[in-house]
Amino acid sequence: MLEQFSATECAGSYAWINDYKPLAQKYLADYRVYAEWKKQPQQLDNAEHIAAALDRLRAAQRAVATITLR
C-alpha cells in the first residue's frame, strides 16, 4: 500500500496528501530493509549460525536507524 500511495499524484482539493509522501517513503524504506532481512535463512542450530543471524539483525537495525535519521 505504501508503494501505491507513493506512486499516486493527488491534485486539487486533495493535493495536501502529497505532503505525506516523504513520511510514507521512510516507512517504505524501513519495510524493504525488514523484507530483505526476513529472506535470510534463520538457522539457529549452533553458535556460528546464531552469531551470523545476530550480525544480520544488527546490520538491519543500523539500516533502519540510518533511514529514520534522514
Explain what the structure shows.
This protein has 70 residues and is an all-alpha fold. The protein has one domain. The protein has three helices and no strands. The two termini are 22 Å apart. 0% of the residues are buried. The model has no long low-confidence stretch (mean pLDDT 86).
H/E element order: HHH
How many structural domains? 1
Got a strand count? 0
Could you report the average pLDDT, rounded to the nearest whole number? 86
Span from first to last CA? Answer: 22 Å
Category by helix and strand content: mainly alpha
Oligomer: single chain
Uncertain stretches:
none
Q: Which outline best applies?
A: elongated
Radius of gyration: 17 Å
Task: Report on the biggest sheet.
Answer: none
How many helices? The count is 3
Helical residue percent band: 55-70%
Classify the beta-strand content into a percent band: under 5%
